[in-house]
Amino acid sequence: MSRVFSNSIDYIFTDPPYSDNVQYGELNFVWEAWLGFDTHWHDEEIIVNPVRGKTEADWADMMRQAMSECYRVLKPGRWLTLCYHDTSEGTWQLVQDIMAEVGFIIDKSDTTLFIDTGQKSYNQLTADKATKRDLVLNFRKPKAGDWVVTQLFIPFDADTETFTELGQQIIRDYLTAHPGATKDRIYDRLVSHMVRKGEMEAHDFDALLRTVAEEVEVRSPAFPKSRASLPKSRASESSRWYLKETADAIDKAEQQKEDAAAGRLEQFMREYLEDNPEEEGVHYSDLFEQYLPVADKPRRLLADWLPEYFFKTTSGTWRPPADETERQQKAALREKGTLRRIKRFANALIDGVPVRDKDRPAGDADLADWIQQCRRAGLYEQGRALYEKGGLNLDRLDEVEQIEVEDAYRICVRRGSDEEKAKRKRRKKR
Q1: Considering just the CA atoms, what is the radius of gyration of the chain in Å?
Q2: Do 118 and 158 touch, CB atoms closer than 8 A?
Q3: Which of 8-12, 13-17, 86-90, 210-214 tops mean pLDDT?
Q4: Which of 188, 136, 172, 147 is nearest to 251 (CA)?
């Protein structure tokens, strides 16, 4: 686009690639080679492909370059429309960051526009997070004198309060998914998510980490000596980090954001199910569409807090609480942080890392209840891990409890297997 004059285009409509969803270059390679076309453009393809050494960071940098050119050629006050077809919330946030960094203002609307592209495949209709429609997002290039407030990436010179709050959330999310991670792993995660430009040294990472996590020294054949006697280069490897008990508490402001967003989704669910009584739940992508226009989004990703408010059906969709008992059940989970504790314990079992005693259930009855909670929340891999690796002793349960937990385990195995098959099919189609 270098030949196009700056501030000369009235309107831009674009449908860019998203992460590793579709490998366009590979799909077209045979045809282009057969027709004798030059395929060197693949080197500049905006895609994520580990085999070709193209990372998410490469994708973001090239997207930023492309959107910068769009911004340059677009007339001030005019609009760019972008088709979005990825329900990965991390990618969505990254797109917003890129567009805001370039200078665009996102259209604030209470509804989500979409393009219905017609008949969908079986996977698109049934898969947990496949999009059923192409969402349409509008961005405006500001005119001279416009006051622009954007949600940018967090650079190294961000104010301490903002950096601390968002940094704590990223660490909490990572240690929930990977309890017992080393400091280096946590640092890499924080840098990749928050500091796309600048220097991390401007903030005290150790102090930030210790606000939400605690260090546990590991003694093993690999590290028989105490941490103090090890070389500095290996000292960090001899300890693991786990969330503090207080880290499960969500501040009041964040809780209100999640409650408000959940209220919007529940209203949509009830209206949808009233209009479609043959359905037992609402597809995730439909919920994602309703969530996008929420102006004041919670820090936690939608996929993280959704199970704390709603129930996952046997078909992989989501439904609201059926009665006050179910509503109170979910409220108790949120108040105690039980689901987050369950995830930590189960993910430690899956990763094969040491589990702290304080993260374990109080007994077999509690462990059986945790497996039931995983089944209700759609955490099938975690539920299976709890049953198979959590040390459950069925002899300590009564007959009814045994039947219930075994039934929950079978559902976790079956649904988890179905989801894994669906993922493999989607990967093959790419």
Answers
A1: 24
A2: no
A3: 8-12
A4: 172
DSSP code of 106? E
9 backbone dihedrals φ, ψ, rounded to 5°: -100, 135
Give yes or no for a contact between 25 and 42, defined as CB atoms under 8 angstroms apart.
Answer: yes
Interatomic CA distance for residues 255 and 260, integer angstroms: 9
User: Residue 147: is its pLDDT beyond 50?
Assistant: no
Q: Which two tokens stand for residue 205?
A: 């990472």
Residue of 207, 420, 201, 176 whose CA lies nearest to 305: 176
**Integer CA distances (angstroms), 153 to 192, 197, 370, in order:** 11, 9, 37
The domains found in the chain, sorted by start residue, are 9-140 (3.40.50), 160-248 (3.30.420), 337-429 (no CATH)
Distance CA 134, CA 359 (A): 42
Handedness of CA 63, 67, 68, 73 (dihedral sign): positive
Answer whether 0.70 is exceeded by the pTM.
Answer: no
Q: Are 250 and 258 in contact (CB under 8 A)?
A: yes
Question: Strand, coil or helix: what is 199?
Answer: coil
Contacts of 399 (CB under 8 A, 6+ apart): none
How many DSSP H helices and E strands does the chain contain?
Answer: 16, 9
